[in-house]
Amino acid sequence: MKKIKINLNKAAKKKLLITGIIALITVIILCIVLYIGNHEFKRFFDRHILRKEIVSNNVAGIDISTLENPSIYAYSKYITILSKNKLTTYSNSGSKEYEHEISVSDAIYASNNRFLVVAQKSGQNLYVISEANLLWQAEVEGQIQKVNVNKNGYVCVTISGGSHKTIILTYNPSGKELFKTYLSNTAIDADISNDNKYLGIAEINTSGTLIQSNIKIISIEKAQNDPTNSVIYTYNAESNKLITDIKYGNQNKLAIQYDDGISILHEEKENQIVSFKDNKITFASIDLNNYSAYTNEKSTGLFSSKTQVILKNNITEKENIYTADGTAKDIKTHASNIALNLGSQVDFINTNGWLIKKYVSEREIKDIVIAESVAGIVYKDKIEIANI
């Protein structure tokens, strides 16, 4: 009889364990469903359970001088400050890491992965940096208008001035100039594909009564031997549509932002994925990894509103939506991160539509810089650092 009693106890414990596991799984599933579908529950869970909310003055910071008019940028896991021809790099804890002497006063930037490009706006000087290393520098003829770098360190530089309206210079990661592309129209943007095979150029022709926007796709391999015959194809957009930005994603799909929407160009076929005409868009960006982001504002009362951030996958066209209380003042995007500036609050979200961090301040935020794993919240006298 004693042996039977022991077996019964074991059976009861096993049943209790199974019941507990089932109950735990049920609670977890319920929490996930509520987190995804219930805005109020999601906000409570983020604030009190996941502790995603951070408060101003409780994070690392960098003091800045308004008299020096510093230029501030973020890349990789660093915050950079350019002042008096000195580029100083700070870690995500606010400590000074590196310094580079560069001849740049009015800077334009581009970054991708571990690469940072800094150039003199409407000037000739160009620098490519990776952490402690100044990888290479160049002095170009003409006036630099824009720079871009892909994840492998290939750089393209848009230059105006001279006999051609625009010249695009393309460099390899070691700083060797691969070729020049001469354009008779004005280049708006240029980008290099992730596999280093193609250079995409957006240009506009304003000589006629209507604006004509075009995309040129150039073979980087062919351009090194025969630049004049390196154009794979030219895509002509609808008349009077203005291109503002382009960005390569996976599968060599090129995202194009127009003044009236966002399209994907692939193998000479264009597919519009967002129309600004059908939506009350407040901000939009394609500067993300394989995603487009745009916001719209919805009134919830006489003096209240909500901002929706719609994140659309450029390949599958699946949408993820994040909703925040308040009106967006601005958005900043980079890699898979989006910073939604709500005035004295910043919601950092990813392309899945999930909140990464919520930053709350008592002061009005002047600006935000954002990179792969760090963001800087900029005030007149200080930069506060949020690790994302």
Give the arrangement of secondary structure elements.
Layout: H1 2-37, H2 39-49, E1 53-55, E2 61-63, E3 71-75, E4 78-83, E5 86-90, E6 96-101, E7 107-112, E8 115-120, E9 125-130, E10 133-139, E11 143-149, E12 155-160, E13 166-171, E14 177-183, E15 186-192, E16 198-205, E17 212-219, H3 220-225, E18 231-236, E19 243-248, E20 254-258, E21 261-266, E22 269-275, E23 281-285, E24 291-299, E25 305-313, E26 319-325, E27 330-334, E28 337-341, E29 345-350, E30 355-360, E31 367-370, E32 374-378, E33 382-387
Parallel strand pairs: 1-30
Antiparallel strand pairs: 2-33, 3-4, 4-5, 5-6, 7-8, 8-9, 9-10, 11-12, 12-13, 13-14, 15-16, 16-17, 17-18, 19-20, 20-21, 21-22, 23-24, 24-25, 25-26, 27-28, 28-29, 29-30, 31-32, 32-33
Helix pairs in contact: 1-2
Describe this structure in words.
By secondary structure, the protein is mainly beta. Helices cover 14% and strands 51% of the residues. The protein contains three helices and 33 strands. The strands form eight sheets. The protein has a five-stranded mixed beta sheet with strand order 1-30-29-28-27, with no helix packed on it. Strands 2-33-32-31 form a four-stranded antiparallel beta sheet, with no helix packed on it. The chain has a four-stranded antiparallel beta sheet with strand order 3-4-5-6, with no helix packed on it. Strand 16 and strand 17 (212-219) form a beta hairpin. The radius of gyration is 25 Å and the shape is globular. The N and C termini lie far apart (62 Å).
